[in-house]
């Protein structure tokens, strides 16, 4: 009997650590040990009940919930064999608690709560009688009930139970339970719409699990991925799930594997990978049907339907069969109490009816969709707004369609204002993409008048580069994020040395990527990024241009458009196919990279240079010459779009010698231009390792400034540089740099002790007014949804720097040093950064591809 009890406890521990196959092995051995004659029948029944309770849960995890429930029915029939008293009361309580848990796992929430209430009442009575040994069981039961209340949208009751769990766990020294219930509280907050709060709780739980039970990180990652999809970071959610799915499949945790596949399908759908989305949704649905989880299976079916609806909406006339499927699924989901999902299926059916040419039927379907709730997922609210706009448009009511788009983007803005971390703020734009595209298309259809041009300008500003419309609040890296970034720096340094030595790098690259992602995830739980500024109006921008001209580029479908704000007027000019400009910009970028090496053979330099000049001429003809009569010789503020973010404008003939500033949006340019200048003094000059021309370059630059502070190679350490950046007027950093396209905030400058990341520079308390990055490609960005550029220079601007000078292509050491000498000479003579850079670039534009970003 002692050995059987030991095996039951081992099985219970393995199950709690998410290792059900191992748990079942222990539990079967326990049953074998009980199958001997001469054992006390009451004790045998007691131990057998405990084994079957634990086995029922693990059978439900690896097979079907019905298998687990059948075992519980066996126990319920056997319990009367135990005399009435404390033991029977305890086992009955365990039976009720386990029964409730299995019902919860398959979505039978209200039914499960009736059992768990009995369990809680039993434990509370024992604790009130002074039996503190009951605390672990009470904590577990309260946790399960709290999760159940969260599932049925009763967040107040859920938070009440989970807060009590955390309080009891701290009081009675149950640290792992603190982490488990903090994780659960994150799930409740996520469902209630408090995504920043949810991500903070996930970060807290992550710390506990890493120290005490790493096996619980797998489930945490699934829930984190759902939150990330909610804020538009579907690509990161997909990577997160790709990490955990192999381990989940090895452990054969059926429900968790199915949920991970379901969310992987959702992430792929948002990312536009319809093939992967359908495959994962179908796999999840099959698993969930086998497990006896019809509610979850219907949710998987909804994702598969969304894939088919997406394809149907792109066709000329969707099949009626897709509409019928949507309505059937809506009915099934509603019958299972999944009202948000049912409403979404019905909205899909309505959108398909609009596409089929029947707005009256679509309107009828929408009337039966319940009114949006505050806690309804943001993507559901955006699709509802989009459907209403499409119905209005089908009836010829453009005004109502635009009103729906405006209201939807305002709702999205309210969510974004609560988010912390640049990636989250940027990613949220994904959910408003279709609404924004619809509005822009409608405005463009209204003609090219000045009034319509102003309307288009306002819509573009509502949809683009929202990350840069925040005045950043003072923040610091928390200790764990700081430690993680230090680890990334160490691994980056090791990888660089391995590449230089020709050593194998695959293992280091894998570790570095994992460490980068871990650091980024810690940043998601930060407090709100900053204070939002209102979207700029054309009148406000023109009042600040002061003789300059602004050109804001945009695309709709394959049409490229320019808005020119000049002399108190807004003009719209249609430029032709966007694809041609995109391809030309990419070819120019490749040519400039090829021209960069210092010692390129002259014949090769001539061939590549001719190609670069040809592409610059093509881009100039497409982008700026149609505006020549309007722009004259004015200084320019350019708001690029898409691939145009890589263009070094000084190489275009129209911009030769002309001061040009590139800004993420007109709103960001206006905010930076208007923002009061904080007190800043001095010039910081930093020389990183490995630049042959840097010694002479930095010494020469110091001669132009009377208040220059130099940090040579030996002093150019990450901590020293970050401290020195605080509060200076101009910071010039001559160091090798690299743009990281997959993790833009890990774009970096190489210093003597490792990489200085964009993540860290954005945390400087008083960022420099002007930053000069004499490094390759650090003006590059990863262009995220909403035409949102994010990279090293972008992080500086978002963090409060007014102007950033950086290269958008590779640049050789010698031309970089010469360009910077010319630039600083002009700067010291009193010229503005934009004017000084224009003069410096004009001397050799194709070898000096620097751009002026920000306010200029």
TrEMBL record:
- List residues of the CHAT domain: 614-840
Record's protein name: CHAT domain-containing protein
Native organism: Saccharothrix variisporea
Which classification does the entry list for the species?
Bacteria, Bacillati, Actinomycetota, Actinomycetes, Pseudonocardiales
């Amino acid at each position: 009997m002692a050995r059987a009890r030991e095996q039951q406890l081992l099985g219970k521990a393995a199950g709690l650590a998410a290792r059900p196959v191992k748990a079942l092995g222990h539990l079967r051995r326990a049953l074998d040990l009980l199958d001997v004659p001469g054992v006390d029948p009451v004790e045998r029944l007691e131990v057998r009940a405990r084994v079957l309770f634990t086995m029922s849960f693990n059978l439900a995890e690896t097979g079907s919930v019905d298998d687990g429930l059948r075992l519980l029915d066996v126990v319920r029939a056997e319990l009367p064999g135990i005399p009435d008293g404390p033991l029977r009361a305890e086992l009955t309580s365990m039976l009720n608690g386990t029964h409730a848990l299995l019902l919860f796992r398959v979505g039978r929430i209200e039914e499960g709560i009736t059992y768990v209430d009995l369990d809680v009442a039993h434990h509370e009575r024992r604790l009130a009688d002074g039996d503190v040994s009951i605390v672990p069981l009470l904590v577990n039961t309260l946790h399960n009930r709290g999760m159940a209340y969260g599932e049925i949208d009763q967040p107040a009751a859920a938070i009440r139970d989970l807060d009590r769990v955390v309080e009891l766990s701290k009081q009675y020294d149950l640290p792992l339970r603190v982490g488990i219930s903090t994780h659960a509280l994150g799930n409740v907050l996520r469902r209630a719409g408090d995504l920043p709060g949810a991500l903070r709780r996930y970060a807290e739980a992550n710390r506990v699990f890493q120290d005490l039970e790493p096996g619980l990180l797998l489930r945490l990652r699934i829930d984190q991925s759902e939150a990330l999809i909610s804020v538009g970071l579907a690509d990161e959610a997909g990577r997160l799930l790709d990490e955990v799915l192999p381990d989940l499949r090895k452990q054969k945790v059926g429900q968790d594997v199915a949920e991970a596949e379901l969310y992987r399908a959702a992430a792929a759908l948002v990312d536009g990978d319809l093939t992967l989305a359908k495959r994962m949704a179908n796999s999840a649905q099959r698993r969930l049907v086998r497990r006896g989880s019809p509610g979850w299976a219907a949710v998987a079916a909804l994702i598969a339907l969304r894939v088919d609806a997406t394809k149907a909406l792109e066709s000329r006339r969707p099949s009626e069969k897709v509409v019928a499927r949507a309505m059937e699924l809506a009915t099934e989901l509603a019958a299972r109490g999944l009202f948000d999902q049912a409403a979404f299926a019905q909205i899909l059916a309505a959108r398909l009816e609009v596409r089929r040419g029947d707005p009256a039927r679509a309107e009828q379907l929408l009337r039966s969709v319940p009114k949006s709730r505050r806690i309804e997922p943001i993507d559901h609210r955006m699709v509802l707004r989009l459907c209403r706009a499409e119905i209005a448009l089908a009836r010829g009511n453009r005004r109502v369609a635009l009103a729906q788009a405006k209201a939807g983007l305002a709702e999205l803005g309210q969510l974004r204002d609560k988010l912390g971390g640049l990636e989250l703020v940027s990613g949220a734009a994904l959910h408003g993409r279709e609404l924004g595209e619809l509005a822009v298309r409608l405005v463009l259809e209204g003609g090219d008048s000045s009034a319509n041009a102003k309307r288009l300008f306002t819509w573009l500003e509502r949809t683009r580069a929202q990350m840069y419309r925040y005045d950043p609040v003072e923040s610091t890296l928390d200790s764990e994020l700081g430690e993680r970034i230090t680890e990334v720096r160490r691994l980056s340094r090791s990888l660089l040395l391995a590449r230089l030595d020709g050593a194998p790098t695959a293992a280091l690259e894998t570790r570095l990527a994992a460490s980068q992602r871990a650091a980024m995830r810690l940043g998601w739980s930060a407090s709100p990024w900053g204070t939002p500024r209102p979207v700029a109006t054309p009148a406000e921008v023109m009042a600040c241009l002061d003789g300059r001209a602004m050109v804001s580029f945009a695309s709709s479908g394959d049409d490229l458009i320019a808005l020119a704000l000049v002399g108190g007027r807004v003009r719209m000019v249609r430029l032709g196919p966007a694809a041609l400009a995109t391809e030309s910009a990419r070819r120019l970028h490749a040519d400039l990279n090829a021209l960069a090496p210092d010692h390129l053979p002259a014949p090769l330099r001539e061939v590549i240079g001719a190609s670069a000049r040809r592409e610059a001429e093509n881009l100039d003809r497409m982008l700026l010459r149609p505006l020549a009569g309007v722009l004259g010789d004015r200084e320019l503020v350019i708001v690029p779009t898409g691939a145009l973010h890589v263009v070094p404008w000084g190489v275009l003939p129209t911009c030769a010698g002309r001061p040009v500033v590139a800004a993420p949006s007109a709103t960001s340019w206006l905010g930076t231009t208007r923002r009061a200048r904080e007190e800043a003094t001095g010039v910081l000059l930093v020389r990183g390792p490995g630049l042959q021309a840097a010694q002479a370059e930095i010494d020469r630059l110091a001669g132009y400034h009377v208040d220059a502070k130099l940090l040579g190679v030996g002093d150019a350490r990450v901590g020293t540089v970050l401290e020195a950046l605080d509060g200076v007027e101009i910071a010039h950093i001559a160091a090798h740099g690299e743009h990281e396209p997959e993790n833009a905030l890990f774009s970096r400058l190489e210093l003597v002790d490792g990489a200085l990341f964009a993540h860290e520079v954005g945390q400087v308390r008083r960022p420099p007014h002007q930053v000069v990055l004499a490094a390759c490609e650090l003006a590059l960005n990863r262009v995220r949804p909403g035409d949102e550029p994010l990279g090293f220079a972008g992080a500086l601007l978002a963090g409060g720097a007014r102007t950033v000078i950086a290269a958008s292509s590779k640049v050789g050491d010698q031309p970089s040093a010469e360009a910077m000498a010319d630039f600083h000479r002009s700067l010291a003579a009193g010229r503005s950064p934009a004017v000084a850079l224009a003069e410096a670039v004009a001397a050799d534009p194709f070898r000096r591809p620097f751009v002026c970003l920000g306010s200029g």
